[in-house]
Amino acid sequence: MIKYLKLLLWPFSLAYAGVTAVRNYMYDQGIKPGKTFGLPVIAVGNLTVGGTGKTPHVEYLLRLLHRYRVATLSRGYKRKSKGFILAEGHTTAEELGDEPFQYHVDFPGVSVAVSEKRVPGIEQLLINRPEIEVVVLDDAMQHRAVQPSLNIMLTDYGRLFYKDFVLPAGLLRESRAGASRADMVIVSKCPDDLTPDAMAAIANNIQKYAGYGKRIFFSRIKYGSAVAFGSTQHITKKVVLLAGIANPKPLHQYLLKQNYEVQEEFIFPDHHEYSVHDLAKVKDFVDAHKSQDITIITTRKDAVKLTEGTLESLTLTMPFFYLPIEVDFVKDGDLFDAFILEHIKKRLRR
After folding, report:
1. Across the strands, what pairs with 218?
2. Burial tier of 216 (Cβ tally within 10 Å: 0-12, 13-18, 19+)
3. Residues 6+ apart with CB under 8 A from 187
4. Is the pTM of this model over 0.85?
5. Distance CA 287, CA 314 (A)
6. How far apart, in whole angstroms, are the C-alpha atoms of residue 258 and residue 290?
7. 334: how many CB neighbours lie within 10 A of its CB?
8. Going from the N-terminus, what domains does the chain have, and what CATH number goes with each?
9. Residues 6+ apart with CB under 8 A from 119
């Protein structure tokens, strides 16, 4: 059935691919110029709609570059504000959007800004914070108006771009040829048992589109110890999973591997705006099973929203924990770090 549906959608995919190809051609030929800046601008993005792990990779870069005065600029997807906003102490998740607000909370030394248009966003950011040395652009692969000094493309191991098709028959935002703009490619969310032969085969397929000689890295998600942010410091093995992310399946699988017993799931769409009603349903379930001593596990992305505004007072009455995640390179992580740091040094010398 899915196969026939894709065939029906194929003409629309061709039309969409044609439009994006014309747009890219205009930028490639300089008909529509991309602006460069006099400082390192690192873009992190992908060709695919949906979560490929951009947020933990941006956070990895922010930690790696902690010795520099760093800023991150995002569109601020699904925020309730418009225009350029530079995060301050009072700025909320509704103003910034999920991921930028998470950067703001977890990286107090980083200047966090949002803007629908990246060029004026960077310009305003540098006016407000002229001391900035490095800008990290979140989800910027298709924002051709900025010419980044380094373009990092992510592709999810479970949805490798070279196996996919352009919208709406597939999930690609543009054709596979767009990978040629990447300076390096990271295959994200890799399994722990990924073999060297499998990595070599994937790298070869990626380079058919990205270009032979391009650096290919492989990363996986590493979960940290659960962090309490609710009514108790004691986590139990019987848990409720609450998540509003693109793909909660890996988190669920991780919990099972760690011998947690998932009693119930409350799964919401990515970037879900939680309500008191949402939390009340979770609380009702936990209260109804009090004798089983159940705790609630969620993600860091969800946790920052659950402790905002009117939700905080209710969240604090519930046994909430979040699982922090970090990027862990399967191999050559030291080479990745060295390449990024050398790129920064070279750009700052100019």
Report:
1. 187
2. buried
3. 154, 155, 156, 157, 160, 199, 202, 206, 216, 217, 218, 219
4. yes
5. 13
6. 22
7. 9
8. 2-68+133-221+333-349 (3.40.50), 227-323 (3.40.50.2300)
9. 35, 145, 146
Q: How confident is the model at residue 163 (pLDDT cuts 50, 70, 90)?
A: very high
Name the 3-class secondary structure at 150: strand
| Tens-digit pLDDT profile for residues 181-234 | 999 999 999 999 999 999 999 999 999 999 999 999 999 999 999 999 999 999
What end-to-end distance do the CA atoms of the chain give, in Å? 56
Residue type, 284: D
In tens, the pLDDT along 4-21 reads: 667 788 888 989 999 999
Mean pLDDT of the chain: 94
State the average pLDDT over residues 119-144.
Answer: 96
Cβ-contact 46, 154 below 8 angstroms: yes
Over the stretch 40-96, which tens digit does the pLDDT of each residue have? 999 999 999 877 889 999 999 999 999 999 999 999 988 989 999 999 989 998 899
Contact (Cβ atoms closer than 8 angstroms) between residue 297 and residue 262 = no
Kindly give, in sequence order, each residue whose CB lies less than 8 Å from that of residue 13, ignoring residues fewer than 6 positions away. 165, 166, 167, 168, 169, 170
- The H-or-E segment that residue 323 falls in is strand 320-323
Tokens of 54: 């951009």
Look at the alpha carbons of 153, 158, 163, 169 in this order and tell me if their dihedral is positive or negative.
Answer: negative
